[in-house]
Amino acid sequence: MNKTRHNLVSLLPLLLPLLLAGPALCVAGETQGNQVVIQRLISELKQNDWILRASALKMLGEMKATEAAAPILEIAQGASNDWIRAQALMAVARIQPQ
Predict the structure, then answer these.
(1) 7-52: pLDDT as tens digits
(2) Where would I find the beta strands (DSSP E) of 1-98?
(3) How many whole angstroms separate alpha carbon 67 and alpha carbon 44?
(4) What are the residues whose beta carbons fall under 8 Å from the beta carbon of 62, sequence distance 6 or more?
(5) Among 26, 36, 45, 92, which one is least packed by beta carbons within 10 Å?
(6) Which of 63, 70, 54, 66 minimizes the C-alpha distance to 8?
């Protein structure tokens, strides 16, 4: 199994409950369970795999995870990949819609 696929498979237990619960998590507010998920997604932002980073950015934006704003802004300002920078900017716009 290649590394990218292995990384995606390792995220399934984390992502499946989010996919099933979806909008309910965002509406329900930040619970302890959400905090664990948010911290895991923030750690995924440091991965070299752009697919993992993009997925984490999308989910953090959808969850409006305010504690992720600073690491996402760092990506928006310093990522070498233009597409990832754009994804980071969209996530920040969802988190801080000013």
Answers:
(1) 666 666 666 555 555 555 554 454 567 888 999 999 999 988 888 8
(2) none
(3) 14
(4) 26, 94
(5) 36
(6) 54
